[in-house]
Design a protein that fits this description.
It comes from Paenibacillus lactis. Keywords: DNA damage, DNA repair, Glycosidase, Hydrolase. By secondary structure, the chain is of the alpha/beta class. It has a single domain, classed as 3-Layer(aba) Sandwich (Uracil-DNA Glycosylase, subunit E). It has 5 helices and 5 strands. The protein has a 5-stranded mixed β-sheet with strand order 2-1-3-5-4, sandwiched between helices. Helix 2 packs across helix 5. It is globular and about 40 Å long. The mean pLDDT is about 95.
Amino acid sequence: MNTVSDHLDYGLTIIFIGFNPSLRSGEVGHHYANPRNNFWRILHQSGLTPRLYDASEDGELLKLGYGFTNIVARPTRGAEDITREEYRAGRETLREKLQKYRPQVACYVGKGVYTEFSGRTKAQWGLQSDSVVDGVRDFVAPSSSGLVRMPMGEIVSIYRELYELVSESPEM
């Protein structure tokens, strides 16, 4: 199974960070490609994108100031298939990426992604009071997986907070 290439650059507003690619994403080489994943609909409905994008257009979001990576690069059926060693190595690699590219916001797509990376046991939705990487604001958003039981309206409202955060000041 192929890994899915990161879409990273300097000067990004947001880097979206997932657990790892789905098997479907690994097959097609694009982030959030599983048709049951709501990521692209959530971005559009929250105002983060001006139109509904397709997973095949994930690289185009660099033009909007958005990048993509994962804490673990290996595609799996689910996050439960990720090993402790993969998380350990992934935390180091992710920290290096955030220190190198310095996005304004690291958006963790799921509380579990954030707690795995940060080592914290709990997190609230939204902007976190402390940053893991100095100079990068941490934002925790719900997973976009179709398996998430949270109502879509609630998920979209949290992503709308992210949109408002990055829209509120000239440097964001």
